[in-house]
Amino acid sequence: AQSVTQPDIHITVSEGASLELRCNYSYGATPYLFWYVQSPGQGLQLLLKYFSGDTLVQGIKGFEAEFKRSQSSFNLRKPSVHWSDAAEYFCAVGARTGFQKLVFGTGTRLLVSP
Amino acid sequence: GAGVSQSPRYKVAKRGQDVALRCDPISGHVSLFWYQQALGQGPEFLTYFQNEAQLDKSGLPSDRFFAERPEGSVSTLKIQRTQQEDSAVYLCASSRQDGMPPNEQFFGPGTRLTVL
């Protein structure tokens, strides 16, 4: 069965510091990979996605993620965090066949300290 | 509208009551998904529609859960005889069409259901 693991429940980062959120997946083949952000009272917003090709993908708000097939990982990074980045971040996978039912991880809550 | 809307945003129900949650997808979006997000968890898939056809309902937790999209636009998720374990945020998402690679799913703000 597909599963997504986000090992960090909470992460606190100082404003201006770099960020890396971890994501590992278990899947029979390389799935489609996504990162979403959820702010309080807001819907999930897509940050970036990996389908194929270059394993380093760029997203919105200065985020990037790197797909590493050998590690079944898709970690999210940002070089300099802003206070407005404080939110919940979800990694998700989708199958390469059929319709796009997404399987989400449990999320990582990012706190940004001044 | 500009995005996916859901109503009500908050619903409090007494155990045993029936509830109906509405989703208005982005106009013209073919695909519609319902997810359930329990407190402290990621969203979990409930059901999927392509236009008015419900193509997958494998995630519905029990036969108390029922979803419909009769005209291929607005969708309603109905929960009969609500139980405390049904308390969660119910998220609706829509996308333009099926295909590979997939189109982005746009999520609504969710309906927070609390069952007392």
List the helices and strands and how they pair.
The complex is a heterodimer of chains A (114) and B (116).
Chain A: E1 3-5, E2 10-14, E3 19-21, E4 24-26, E5 32-38, E6 44-50, E7 56-58, E8 64-68, E9 73-78, E10 87-94, E11 102-104, E12 108-113
Parallel strand pairs in A: 2-12
Antiparallel strand pairs in A: 1-4, 3-9, 5-6, 5-10, 7-8, 8-9, 10-11, 10-12
Chain B: E1 5-7, E2 10-13, E3 19-24, E4 31-37, E5 44-50, E6 53-56, E7 65-68, E8 75-79, E9 88-95, E10 106-107, E11 111-115
Parallel strand pairs in B: 2-11
Antiparallel strand pairs in B: 1-3, 3-8, 4-5, 4-9, 5-6, 7-8, 9-10, 9-11
Task: Describe the overall structure.
- The complex is a heterodimer of chains A (114) and B (116).
- By secondary structure, chain A is mainly beta.
- Helix content of chain A is 0%, strand content 52%.
- In chain A, the strands form three sheets. In chain A, strands 2, 5, 6, 10, 11 and 12 form a six-stranded mixed β-sheet that branches. Chain A has a four-stranded antiparallel β-sheet with strand order 3-9-8-7, with no helix packed on it.
- Chain A starts with a strand and ends with a strand.
- The model of chain A has no long low-confidence stretch (mean pLDDT 93).
- By secondary structure, chain B is mainly beta.
- Chain B is built from no helices and eleven strands.
- In chain B, the strands form two sheets. In chain B, strands 2, 4, 5, 6, 9, 10 and 11 form a seven-stranded mixed β-sheet that branches.
- In chain B, β5 and β6 form a beta hairpin.
- Chains A and B meet through β6, β10 and β11 of A and β4, β5, β9 and β10 of B.
Cα radius of gyration of chain B in angstroms = 13 Å
Fraction in helix of chain A: under 10%
Shape of chain A: globular
Distance between the termini of chain B: 33 Å
Rg of Cα set of chain A: 14 Å
* Main sheet makeup of chain A: 6 strands, mixed
Distance between the termini of chain A: 41 Å
Structural class of chain B: mainly beta
- Give the integer mean of the pLDDT values of chain A: 93
